[in-house]
Design brief:
Distance between the termini: 69 Å
Structural class: alpha/beta
Oligomer: single chain
Largest sheet: 10 strands, mixed
Radius of gyration: 24 Å
Number of strands: 10
Strand content: 15-25%
Order of helices and strands: HEHEHEHEHEHHEHEHEEHHE
Shape: globular
């Protein structure tokens, strides 16, 4: 039996509409944004990731690593839709054409700080002299291995040299590969830890003693940019817009960052 022409047209129209809905749904479900960022942002972005995904229907595939490692990987040809690293690293990538022009966005900043185990006496680090004495009397100090490029470890090694105490600290120094200093302190395996404030605040059992005294202070500003070869510039911009919202800024602040 032949189907009437009007019925056939209606059927085809229904099928096309259904296919469009399925295709749109798949695009929303399968959209993915690749992100390369500093390991220091792990606690904040892990918390914000599901919120963004629910809101914008875009999955985030986040790669965390040390700033120096990610910088090298991008310069060597590896890319991502969104890159968030320290300002100097991002400026290097911009000069090399690895970022889309005019897309830099200040995400947050954090300062180098001292951690102690919760419930233990806190050292005096209010002045340069007090800081120096506290480092010398501490039984053990943990920080990121400068040889591996951890920003806080590289900086603290320079501070120790500047204060003339590098040799005295060697025998009681514990080096970790990345952002684990606060965890080591929380376990009681080191008396003091040196790390970014954002790496200390989220760790249960570790407490932020304070930032380095003004003369030794160091702040790391994390800047985001859109990869030069991305095909998802719209979604990348949506992520930066999201990170600029009041709720996202509150989450960043709760993890020890100062939002951009």
């Amino acid at each position: 039996m032949r189907m009437p022409k009007r019925g056939f047209v209606h059927l085809v129209g229904s099928l096309v509409a259904a296919l469009a809905l399925v295709t749109t749904g798949r695009a929303a479900d399968q959209g993915e944004l690749t992100v390369m960022t500093s390991v220091a942002l792990t606690p904040a972005l892990d918390e914000l990731k599901p919120v963004f995904e629910r809101q914008d229907h875009v999955k985030l595939a986040i790669t965390y690593d040390l700033i120096s490692n990610l910088r090298k990987r991008v310069l060597a040809g590896e890319g991502a839709d969104v890159i968030i690293l320290s300002r100097p690293a991002m400026e290097d990538l911009q000069k090399e054409g690895k970022l889309a022009p005019g897309t830099l966005f200040e995400v947050a900043s954090t300062s180098i700080a001292v951690a102690a185990r919760t419930g233990t006496p806190k050292p005096d680090i209010s002045t340069v002299d007090a800081f120096k004495k506290s480092m010398l009397v501490a039984k053990s100090i943990v920080y990121a291995d400068p040889a591996k490029g951890g920003a806080s470890g590289v900086y603290f090694a320079k501070v120790a040299e500047r204060l003339g105490i590098a040799d005295q600290l060697k025998s009681k120094t514990i080096l970790v590969p990345g952002a684990q200093a606060a965890e080591v302190v929380a376990k009681g395996e080191a008396e003091l830890g040196i790390a970014q404030a954002s790496e200390i605040v989220p760790v249960s059992g570790a407490e932020l003693v304070g930032l380095f005294p003004n003369e030794l202070a160091n702040t790391i500003t994390f800047v985001g940019g859109i990869g030069s070869e991305t095909k998802s510039a719209h979604e990348a911009k949506a992520l930066f817009d999201f990170l600029g919202t009041r709720d996202a800024k509150a989450a960043l602040k709760a993890k020890g960052f100062e939002p951009g």
